[in-house]
Amino acid sequence: MLNKEEIKDIIPQREPFLLIDEVEDFVAGESAIAYKNVNADEWYFKGHFPGNPIMPGVLIAESLAQTGAVAILSMEENKGKNALFGGIDKMKFKKMVVPGDRMKLEVKIIKRKGPIGVGEAIATVNEKIVAKGELTFAVV
Q1: Is the pTM of this model over 0.90?
Q2: Which CATH class, in words, describes the domain spanning 4-139?
Q3: Which has the closest alpha carbon to 119: 34, 56, 24, 54?
Q4: What is the C-alpha to C-alpha distance for residues 134 and 64, in angstroms, rounded to an integer?
Q5: Cα–Cα distance, 16 to 123 (Å, whole number)
Q6: pLDDT tens-digit profile of 28-50?
Q7: Does residue 48 carry a catalytic annotation?
Q8: Under 8 Å between Cβ of 98 and 56
Q9: Residue-wise pLDDT tens digits, 65-109
Q10: Domain ranges in the chain?
Q11: pLDDT reported for residue 128
Q12: CA 53 – CA 20 distance, rounded (Å)
C-alpha cells in the first residue's frame, strides 16, 4: 500500500489536484489499483453543485489517469517524467460519485508503443461501476 507521500514520489500531481489517496497495488508498466476517498470538503463541491454535491466526471477520469500514471511512471525508464493525456475514448459515466464514497480506481495498460500507450480504466463504488473507458497517454 502506498500513501499520498509515496504516490508523490512517482507522479508529479500535488494538492489540490492530487486525486488519489492511496495505491493498493501496482505492477510497473502493467497496472495499478488506487482509491479516492471523496469527502464533503473537496474544493470542487463548492460549485458542483451547491446543495447537491457531485464529483465532476472529468475529475473521475483524472483520478483514473493518475492511477494509470502510477503504473507507467514507476517504470525505471520513466522516473521523473510526466504522463499527459493523449485522449479519452469510450468513457461512460454510470453513477454519481458523492461525498462519503470510496472510489476504487483500476487501470490496466493494454497497449504501449514508445512513449504512447492506452489504459483500460474502471472506477467503482461499492463494487458498482461509476465510470469506465480507455485513456491514451504520452510520456514526456
Answers
A1: yes
A2: alpha beta
A3: 34
A4: 10
A5: 20
A6: 999 999 999 999 999 999 999 99
A7: yes
A8: no
A9: 999 999 999 999 999 999 999 999 999 999 999 999 999 999 999
A10: 4-139
A11: 98
A12: 19
